[in-house]
Amino acid sequence: MTREEALAHLTASSAHLRGQAARALGVVGRPSDLQRLRLAQKLEMVSHVNYALQDSIRRLAQQQQPQLLAHDEGEVISDDVRRQIRGQAVEWISGFLLHEIASPIGLVRLAAKRELANRWDSSETKRHLESVGRVFEAIETLKNAAAVPRPQEFDLASLIDELIGAYPEDVTEWISMIGSRPFVIKGDPSLIRMVVVNGLRNAVESQQTVGRPPQSHDVTVSWGETDVDYWVSVLDHGLGINGPIETAFEIGNSTKKNHTGFGLAIARQAVETMIGSLNLEPAKDGGALYTSRWRK
Ligand SMILES: Nc1ncnc2c1ncn2[C@@H]1O[C@H](COP(=O)(O)OP(=O)(O)OP(=O)(O)O)[C@@H](O)[C@H]1O
Ligand SMILES: [Mg+2]
Question: Which of 59, 243, 248, 282 has the most CB atoms within 10 Å of its CB?
Fold first, then answer.
């Protein structure tokens, strides 16, 4: 795409075309295009196009003022800012993937269903497309985990009750809770839900595959606060951690059948969006300890 074409496509009705134009201008644009890019960004409602515009604006602004970039700038960026930049990148890439690939995959599914007719239900194609569908759902959750927090007051203890209550009784009987109630906090309930759900799910799954019947208090969910942050932890007596812990946090790493391996990455993204941290470590007497904390 030439610079002229890209400038013209900035106002196209197709978000796909606007996205292409925004990215092209990061390469072929000139600092004098900054004003048009900034106006386009102000009006842009589709998040991945908006990020593409933001990225191109940053590139062109750097061309305009190269002297402002200190060579050791990396060293002065704080960890929090670095995480926020990473969060924006995650939101941009995941939004882009969903936007660009979701609809072709929908078309593949429709065509396969039509072409396979009564063989569809038992087909490998259907099975594989279901697994692609799981990955897409996980990408969507990851995108939401990187979205700007919307804090409100709510009772964290009730949220945890609700999440544990979603399991059948033969599971809830071995999950215990330690924390004050009500525990009213200000935070984004949907981000906190992602953090607790994934920790709890992993603990329950680990406990269920350990090879002995679960006993009461095998999984314990605790919560509380310090002067500066809130925390939630989940302790289990399951399989424990095998291999390097950081590998478990990488997207797509799973030791379980039919799982996408997104859970820890989503949970870590959600706490980092709230300015916090997430850890998984071997528990003292076997099993694992999952600890999340985020700033008040
Ligand atoms: N409490 C735990 N005990 C033992 N291993 C764990 C625990 N939590 C996570 N892991 C390990 O880390 C891996 C990655 O966890 P993660 O939640 O990201 O993915 P997953 O549970 O495999 O899949 P998904 O969460 O997408 O369903 C797991 O497959 C497991 O090997
Ligand atoms: Mg998981």
Answer: 248
Residue labelled with tokens 């950081």: 246
Q: Which CATH number fits domain 3-76: 4.10.280, 3.40.50, 1.20.120, 1.25.10?
A: 1.25.10
Q: What is the pLDDT of residues 94-150, one digit of tens each?
A: 888 888 888 888 899 999 999 999 999 999 999 999 989 888 889 989 989 988 889
Of 137, 140, 218, 254, best ligand 1 pocket probe by most atoms within 8 Å of the beta carbon: 254
Equal CATH topology for 3-76 and 152-295: no
Residues with CB under 6 A from ligand 1: 138, 198, 202-203, 206, 236, 238-241, 248, 253-256, 259-265, 280, 288, 290
pLDDT-based confidence at 85, cuts 50/70/90? Answer: confident
Kindly report the protein residue whose alpha carbon is nearest to atom 28 of ligand 1. Answer: 254
pLDDT more than 90, % of the chain: 64
Superfamily name with CATH number, domain 152-295:
Histidine kinase-like ATPase, C-terminal domain (3.30.565.10)
Ligand 1 atom closest to the Cα of residue 253 is: 14
